[in-house]
Specification:
The chain is of the alpha/beta class. It has 2 domains: about 1-40 and about 290-390, Aspartate Aminotransferase, domain 1, CATH 3.90.1150.10; about 45-285, Type I PLP-dependent aspartate aminotransferase-like (Major domain) (Aspartate Aminotransferase, domain 2, 3-Layer(aba) Sandwich). About 40% of the residues lie in helices and about 15% in strands. It has helices at about 15-25, 45-55, 65-80, 95-110, 125-130, 155-160, 185-195, 225, 235-240, 255-265, 275-285, 290-305, 335-345, 380-390; strands at about 30, 90-95, 115-120, 135-140, 165-170, 200-205, 230-235, 250, 315, 320-325, 350, 350, 370-375. Strand 3 (about 115-120), helix 5 and strand 4 form a beta-alpha-beta unit. Helix 12 runs parallel beside helix 14 (about 380-390).
Length: about 400
């Protein structure tokens, strides 16, 4: 009987991130694939969490999160984006951005609904939409071209995908994997969409504090009309180099948050109390967030400069801690085939960008691009670059 147990996700196996990390371990490769730092969170943050444990913050936190952390989040967002969320009713602390996204989709999307995804898109979205009984409608970005080597969102195509069944549009900026950020004209396009169509926006902003070259992260929350239609999601794990802490948050208008919390309370109920107390304390430091973009820009620039000594051509990234590289100089195979070969023969693991599409094996998902994570120690990046220099001897295959 159990052998015929029906699956809710019959075509979903392990993620590409787990697969490439396992391959990296098998071949003793340097893992620039999965997006996690190989260095510790800031010492003051670690001490703040340890102090919270010593002070007795070890039992269940309130379901929405510790009030002092929700207040700190509200203050941060108002300073950053000029929008005031009510800590008591419009902010929930979640078990990472993943739980915030899942709870939001399960709460707000219903059987028969459609949800628009912009490809390449993070691999969590489509399965979560299916679990909610809805359908994902995928709209591809315009891929890099010779005269414009960057991905671009075609908002006309996005609008063309919206129907009477459309419940939500999922956004992810700064964008994983492309590194694209939103510009004022993008927010203009989104305002037009929500003004014309009764849809919600689910805005995954896990890399909100990692933007480069003097840019400012433009969240939909910076525009009142968009904020009224938006669930904003973010990740302290990504922000503070502590992905294993699985602490994030979501913000939304009161009526929307009420529905999200109904799912949240029966999913995890509440999130690690000492982590919340420690992060709340750390956020009170005026410089807790100020140096993050500069810290990561140095790493981006280090990797970009080093790649000039290899056949891999780096694409410009405006945010996140990921860099795409054009690998067409070393072969025209499927991107996954190139990534496996790079791991096995050169000793550097990456992620094929095709994995962020519905079908990674079709030509439309393969642009000879691999994603590298530069959230690594300088010594790790330098060692990876030394290995990648061996690609000079490769020929196209």
């Amino acid at each position: 009987m159990l052998n015929s147990l029906p699956s809710k996700l019959p075509d979903v196996g392990g993620t590409i991130f787990a697969e490439m990390s396992a391959l990296a371990q098998e071949f003793q490769a340097i893992n620039l694939g999965q997006g996690f730092p190989d260095y510790s969170p800031p010492d003051p943050l670690i001490r703040a969490v340890a102090d919270a444990m010593a002070q007795g913050h070890n039992q269940y936190a309130p379901m929405p999160g510790l009030l002092q952390l929700r207040q700190a989040i509200a203050s941060k967002i108002e300073t950053q984006h000029g929008h005031a969320y009510a800590p008591e009713s419009e902010i929930t602390v979640t078990a990472g951005a993943t739980e915030a996204l899942m709870s939001s989709l399960l709460a707000l999307v219903h059987p028969g609904d459609e949800v628009v995804l912009i490809d390449p898109s993070y691999d969590l979205y489509a399965p979560a939409i299916r679990l909610a009984g809805a359908s994902a409608v995928r709209v591809p970005m315009r891929p890099p071209e010779t005269n414009d080597p960057s991905f671009r969102v075609d908002w006309n195509r996005v609008e063309a995908a919206i129907t009477k069944k459309t419940r939500m549009l999922v956004l992810n900026f700064p964008h994983n994997p492309t590194g694209l950020t939103l510009k004022p004209e993008d927010l203009d396009a989104l305002e037009f969409l929500v003004g014309k169509h009764p849809i919600l926006l689910l805005s995954d902003e896990a890399y909100e504090h990692i933007v480069f070259d003097g840019q400012t992260h433009l969240s939909p929350a910076t525009r009142p009309l968009l904020a009224a239609h938006t669930v904003m999601v973010s990740s302290f794990g990504k922000t503070f180099h502590a992905t294993g802490w699985k602490t994030g948050y979501c913000c939304a208008p009161r009526a929307v948050m009420r529905e999200i919390q109904k799912i949240h309370q029966f999913t995890v109920f509440s999130v690690s109390t000492p982590m919340q107390a420690g992060i709340a304390q750390y956020l009170r430091q005026s410089d807790a967030l100020s140096g993050l973009s500069g810290f990561y820009q140095k790493k981006r620039d280090r990797l970009t400069a080093g790649l000039k000594e290899t056949p891999l051509r780096p694409l410009h990234t405006e945010g996140t801690f990921f860099l795409l590289v054009d690998a067409s100089a070393i072969g025209f195979s499927l991107e996954k085939t190139l990534a496996i070969r790079l791991t096995r023969d050169i000793g550097v693991a990456s992620i094929p960008v095709s994995a962020f599409y519905a079908d990674p094996d079709v030509p439309a998902a393969n642009h000879h691009l691999l994603r590298l994570c530069f959230a690594k120690l300088d010594t790790t990046l330098d060692a990876a670059l030394e290995r990648l220099s061996g690609l000079k001897s490769w020929s196209r295959g």
